[in-house]
């Protein structure tokens, strides 16, 4: 009976994904993971160094972020009774492997025979190891274990690349799929797929495994620390998520950037990991930790009101649901240094405890600065308001500035607002040293126009901010449908340090001629975890 259950599930999955356009698994020996919100994995910590463990965690976090929260990997232990992924360099016989590989989905035979796990093989070392300090080479195997098949093995690949069989060092690494294993014909060949090998992958040293056909146009195989748009759409549809949420990727531009040369390319990333262990941001990270800062991603009055919440080394995109009063995470928390893209992103110093927006010197766009007060450095990024997620471009490394120095001397949190009448940018801030009053300041933090008195201890109708005693972050919430008035989300802690959030109805027009207030607390501040639509128990 158990065998029939898994077989039926596999067939239903296979029928469903035949509607999808891309290179995906149809072998009924494998199926999608049944609990997409908690796919458990654990690592062989006797083999992997702390740094390598950090790389693997960061790859899992990046896959989750790229998929817009469609699936969630959850780290666990060997004793967890759930069927899980065991990340190890050893095969079933305890033999250390020399290259990396994974099953293409949940392996049903192992589930049916009540085995505790299936293996994902990740190994270090040249020439075929994937633990080389890059995100991409690990992310590939997380994509495969979700059901994505290798793009370079699709049955029509001869129209796009020319495999040089004499140079192949790892058997079956370029074997063509047949139509009982995979489907591919309804989607363009994806040179940007994270599952596509580069020209020298699994070839004998000093040779290429394939060349790119002239008919495929100019450009190489991009080495991107992200899944492609087609990868995202495919996996999203396999797991019944909205593929329209997948961020666009200009693959032709990425190919041109990678270069048209088919000469041997180095197996190193242009965006290497830090030498320290990368952060790991579990899905429930913000449920029990105070929010250290919040900011717009795109800016006030933008069509997409995407917000960013920061704490420790992590950041999470979220929106506010005006119908339910909940915060809706757009995806799971991820490390700040991988959320903000290279070349600047990896240089960001965490925790981000100050974030604000400015107009660029040409007045053409808004710039987001995320800063760390201890190091007095900030990362400045432009954002694209035409997309709701992952919209930042960070061309320069984190550094210091006069504006940042002004802010760090006076305030502990910022939420930026545009005065539409002038127009000009102003900053609503939390004032140091008490961190319990707010003010309106100029864009460069040199002038204070108005400030509150008793912000946490008073309010219209006698409702106050108690039990909140310290404000850790502010965030203006705007309803772009113009049905609701703006609210001020006030993040903070109680006397015991527990994270809270309250909502305040107040005028937020950033008029320097008006006082702060009056303000009305919309009920008593509540535990932060109660305001999330998911991730918190």
Automatic annotation (TrEMBL):
Documented EC number(s): 3.4.24.-
Signal peptide: 1-22
GO molecular function, one term: metal ion binding
Keywords recorded for this protein, A-Z: Hydrolase, Metal-binding, Metalloprotease, Protease, Signal, Zinc
Cofactor or coenzyme needed: Zn(2+)
Hydrolase is among the record's keywords: yes
GO biological process, one term: proteolysis
InterPro entries: MetalloPept_cat_dom_sf, Peptidase_M12A
Official protein name in the record: Metalloendopeptidase
Organism: Ramazzottius varieornatus (Water bear)
Record-annotated Peptidase M12A domain positions: 32-239
Cofactor stoichiometry and binding remark: Binds 1 zinc ion per subunit.
SUPFAM superfamilies xrefs: Metalloproteases ('zincins'), catalytic domain
Domain of life: Eukaryota
Lipid metabolism among keywords: no
């Amino acid at each position: 009976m158990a065998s029939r259950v898994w077989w039926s599930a596999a067939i239903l999955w296979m029928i469903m994904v035949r509607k999808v356009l891309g290179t995906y698994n149809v072998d009924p020996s494998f199926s999608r993971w049944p609990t997409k919100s908690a796919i458990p994995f654990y690592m062989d910590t006797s083999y992997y160094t702390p740094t390598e463990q950090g790389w693997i965690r960061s790859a899992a976090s990046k896959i989750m972020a790229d998929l817009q929260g469609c699936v969630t990997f959850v780290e666990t232990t060997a004793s967890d009774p759930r069927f899980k992924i065991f990340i190890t360099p050893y095969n079933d016989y305890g033999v250390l492997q020399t290259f990396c590989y994974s099953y293409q989905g949940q392996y049903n035979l192992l589930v049916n025979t009540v085995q505790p796990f299936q293996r994902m093989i990740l190994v270090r070392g040249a020439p075929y190891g994937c633990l080389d300090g890059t995100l991409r080479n690990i992310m590939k195997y997380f994509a495969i274990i979700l059901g994505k098949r290798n793009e370079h093995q699709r049955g029509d690949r001869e129209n796009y690349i020319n495999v040089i069989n004499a140079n192949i060092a790892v058997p079956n690494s370029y074997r063509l799929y047949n139509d009982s294993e995979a489907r591919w014909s309804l989607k363009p060949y994806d040179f940007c797929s994270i599952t596509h090998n580069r020209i020298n992958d699994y070839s004998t040293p000093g040779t290429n495994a394939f060349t790119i056909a002239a008919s495929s146009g100019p450009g190489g195989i991009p080495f991107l620390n992200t899944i492609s748009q087609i990868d995202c759409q495919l996996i999203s549809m396999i797991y019944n998520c909205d593929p329209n949420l997948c961020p666009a990727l200009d693959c032709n531009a990425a190919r041109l950037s990678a270069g048209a040369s088919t000469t041997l390319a180095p197996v190193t990333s242009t965006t290497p990991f830090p030498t320290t262990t990368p952060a790991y941001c579990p899905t429930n990270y913000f449920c029990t930790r105070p929010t250290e800062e919040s900011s717009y991603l795109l800016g006030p009055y933008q069509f997409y009101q995407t917000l960013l919440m920061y704490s420790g080394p992590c950041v999470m995109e979220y929106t506010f649901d005006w119908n339910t009063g909940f915060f809706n995470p757009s995806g799971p928390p991820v490390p700040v240094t991988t959320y903000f893209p290279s070349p600047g992103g990896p240089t960001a110093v965490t925790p981000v405890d100050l974030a604000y927006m400015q107009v660029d010197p040409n007045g053409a766009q808004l710039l987001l600065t995320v800063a760390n007060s201890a190091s007095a450095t900030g990362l400045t990024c432009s954002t694209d308001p035409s997309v709701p997620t992952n919209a930042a471009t960070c061309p320069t490394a984190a550094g210091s500035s006069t504006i940042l120095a002004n802010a760090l001397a006076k305030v502990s949190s910022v939420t930026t607002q545009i005065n539409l009448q002038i127009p000009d940018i102003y900053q609503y801030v939390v004032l140091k040293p008490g961190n319990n009053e707010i003010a309106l300041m100029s864009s460069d933090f040199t002038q204070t126009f108005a400030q509150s008195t008793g912000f946490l201890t008073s309010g219209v109708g006698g409702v106050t901010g108690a039990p909140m005693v310290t404000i850790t972050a502010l965030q203006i919430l705007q309803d772009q449908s113009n049905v609701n008035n703006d609210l001020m989300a006030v993040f903070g802690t109680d006397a015991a340090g527990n994270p809270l959030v309250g909502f305040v109805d107040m005028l937020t027009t950033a008029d320097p001629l008006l006082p702060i207030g009056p303000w009305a607390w919309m009920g008593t501040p509540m535990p932060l975890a109660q305001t999330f639509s998911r991730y918190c128990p």
